Amino acid sequence: MKQNNYCVIMAGGIGSRFWPFSRNKRPKQFLDFFGTGKSLIQMTVDRFRPIVPMDHILIVTNVIYKNLVLEQIPDLKESQILCEPARRNTAPCIAYAVAHIKAMVFEQVTGRKMQENEDVDWDDDKMNANIIVAPSDHLILQESAFQQVIKKGLRFIAEHDTLLTLGMKPTRPETGYGYIQMMPGDDSLRKVKTFTEKPNLELAQVFVQSGEFLWNSGIFLWNLRTIRHEIKKNLPDIANKFLAGEWMMGTDKEEEFIQGMFPTCPNISIDYGVMEKAESVHVLIADFGWSDLGTWGSLYDLSEKDEKQNVALKCQAHFYESTGNIVALPEGQLAAIRGLKDYIVAESDGVLMICPKSEEQQIRQFVADAEVQGDGKYN
Amino acid sequence: MKQNNYCVIMAGGIGSRFWPFSRNKRPKQFLDFFGTGKSLIQMTVDRFRPIVPMDHILIVTNVIYKNLVLEQIPDLKESQILCEPARRNTAPCIAYAVAHIKAMVFEQVTGRKMQENEDVDWDDDKMNANIIVAPSDHLILQESAFQQVIKKGLRFIAEHDTLLTLGMKPTRPETGYGYIQMMPGDDSLRKVKTFTEKPNLELAQVFVQSGEFLWNSGIFLWNLRTIRHEIKKNLPDIANKFLAGEWMMGTDKEEEFIQGMFPTCPNISIDYGVMEKAESVHVLIADFGWSDLGTWGSLYDLSEKDEKQNVALKCQAHFYESTGNIVALPEGQLAAIRGLKDYIVAESDGVLMICPKSEEQQIRQFVADAEVQGDGKYN
Question: How would DSSP label each residue in A342-359?
Fold first, then answer.
């Protein structure tokens, strides 16, 4: 385990697509979806423990979830939780983490805090570090395969000034993911040709058949020098905002600085803001049983089914004349269901939702309506 | 309020048709169906308070519900709860209550307990009493109309040696009720021509159109002398069993006697065993918003509906592309339901049931299956 490996876990999402399971006060990453005893964020942190020193794991989350993070991952120090005072997508989130890591590296190398306006030679090799950025709310089934891939990626970015993203071998023409087209080659490490948005079904089928396209996982690896340069070049506005307060990172001035500055950042994703524009981007082909758990449908697809293609998560369910349903109730509950085909039945914390799987995009409307009537109790 | 009015409330049912709302450990009569703050049995007792002295109200129930009755109706004395050690339908239940009331009347008239083999002149007018028998789990909407009818019935049976039943003016060709055909006449009090079993829909339509038929409510009035004679004549086996232990009623021997004897009684209803065979039976035409709440469907029919014909009981429910459903969740819960037509969605105490209204006879199967797996937890 190299002392200059860092990991940034992004945990600011509100996961409203999994309502009523996932709620404003306890979003998806904090839930134990499969009844394994661990939430998605706990599993995410555990996956990085053998690779990154524990005190180099940073969680970026909304300030309202700080206590939830501390509760679920008690061996984190408070200083390892970077609190966003507003939701600004992944680019400002990553820029914040990069600024924070710079201060950590500076202190590790020099044994002291940075001073205001201090002139530091950041291109000095001593000042470099390897950074993994990962979402907190994805499912990864094969942990050791994941760790092998990450280690391979780390070796590569330690020696190459390139941005590296993990691309998942597609197993179906999924329309819910972005795709990465890679350059031809024999190695599992390739240059990226293009990033594409979520395709329609026809296009997704072409992508998968071509063998040139991978699912964009949102898991990135790069060294500090490279991401620093790329943010500065492609998002100079955001870069400059963070540069101004860099010396405050890791001090008692950090919180106030972020509170005032962060909300002034534009809402922009790292994919759109940096990855699609960067000079050198590579992709590492990976295959470790991955899902972004973006929808009930994807959860259904992943789950073990009975002979009638029904799924019961965390509960007992008796199905009669019913096929293709996913039922998720609080642990220990029983469901008796008759005459339902391809529905989601989900209950959590005082809210029951019943909706056809094919219409789950309507959940947004349910949440909005629940919000109006429940005074925040139901959303 | 006459001091020789008695009321017998039958509360031994297990109400499995309302599973999962109604459970073995808390059947239908003990539930607050409409979120009014009172259970059906509490409302039943309250309806009789102005008519019958409180200490003349008897509850006949299964021994396992004794504590539930005491908890829900705390101003009852334990001696007012007659415990059945087994389920034997209404005839043994009523025979037991009649034996118990005989002992109460004897003590009230003589100031002492009956002795074994004591020769009492039960046909003496002093020994007579008026008795109302009513189920504990029906819904009655117009309480004062109900009380007027009961008072009229009491006046009649105080002066006539006849069995009197309340017949409800039918408002629809309901196939879930038995019907009473009455003799022609102008008064709301008529002689009964026939009792009929639950009819099919065609027959029910003929019944309702004829104007001669009433719904059989299962609420009876009679004086002690008459019911005593009719049980003796029509159910001599049961009558003799109770006669043998009559002197033990209201003493510390009652419980043991009933424990040994009651299970030996045949399983027979008062309708079949007595009403259909008795010499003189009258019906009092009544109209006070009555339902036996026998099925989810009947509960749906009775309940207030929104513009899409949906019913939400005790909970909030948001319906989308959904019509004709009845949803009953624990108080304070929210349901968001899309794409359901004519379903029952009911949840209580760890069990969720979803079933088309037209197939609610399947509930028996759900309960049986739940029983197997839940070790009694779910039934």
Answer: SEEEEEETTEEEEEEGGG
